[in-house]
Structures are given as structure tokens and as C-alpha cells.
């Protein structure tokens, strides 16, 4: 089922569960994910998040089952972990 502008209605109303907001540089963590959902992430990079060369680089993430491993995160390069 789709909306008048072509968006999937089921996707629009399916709930997601925010599990974490990561700002630590690197790490690994295993999550308990609700039945029927999968672990997903959104990454954000502020325009003020630059390395020593003055360039901005997004966090690097890998998901293996319910375990997330990440690097290059910070308060301006954060990772939102969710189940959807």
C-alpha cells in the first residue's frame, strides 16, 4: 500500500526502537533486539566535525547479527542505534 506520493505506507507506520546514542570514539556492543526487528544505525556528521586536515569523516560501523562495532565516532560524529 502506498501514499499518494508513492511512499510505502507500511514503512511509514512501522515502529522503530532507539537503543543507543553513541559518541565514544570506538567500541563494540551487543544489543537485545525486539522480535521481528533488525539492528540498524544512522550516522551523523556535523559540519563542525573535522579531523586535523580540516575534512569531515563519518563514523565507520559494522553490524554482525546483534553486535555493533564502530570507530571514528564523537559528539559531532554520532551514531544512533535502533531496531527497525
Description of the structure:
With 84 residues, the protein is mostly beta strands. Helices cover 6% and strands 36% of the residues. The chain is built from one helix and six strands, in the order αββββββ. It has one helix at 9-13; strands spanning 17-22, 27-30, 39-43, 60-64, 67-71, 79-83. The strands form two sheets. A three-stranded antiparallel β-sheet has the order 1-6-3, with no helix packed on it. A hairpin with a 2-residue loop joins β4 and β5 (67-71). The longest helix has 5 residues, at 9-13. The protein is globular. The two termini are 19 Å apart.
Task: List strands and helices in order, with pairings.
Layout: H1 9-13, E1 17-22, E2 27-30, E3 39-43, E4 60-64, E5 67-71, E6 79-83
**Overall 3D geometry?**
globular
Strand order of the largest sheet: 1-6-3
Alpha-beta classification: mainly beta
Helix and strand run = HEEEEEE
Reported for the largest beta sheet, the result is:
3 strands, antiparallel
Mean pLDDT: 83
Cα gyration radius (Å)? 15 Å
Summary keywords:
84 residues, three-stranded antiparallel β-sheet, mainly beta
Short description:
This protein has 84 residues and is mainly β. Helix content is 6%, strand content 36%.
Amino acid at each position: 500500500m502506498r501514499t499518494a506520493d508513492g511512499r510505502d505506507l507500511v514503512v511509514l507506520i512501522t515502529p522503530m526502537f532507539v537503543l543507543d546514542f553513541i559518541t565514544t570514539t570506538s567500541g563494540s556492543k551487543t544489543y537485545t533486539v525486539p522480535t521481528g526487528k533488525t539492528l540498524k544505525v544512522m550516522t551523523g556528521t556535523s559540519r563542525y566535525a573535522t579531523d586535523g586536515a580540516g575534512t569531515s569523516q563519518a563514523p565507520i560501523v559494522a553490524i554482525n547479527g546483534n553486535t555493533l562495532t564502530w570507530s571514528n565516532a564523537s559528539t559531532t560524529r554520532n551514531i544512533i542505534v535502533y531496531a527497525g
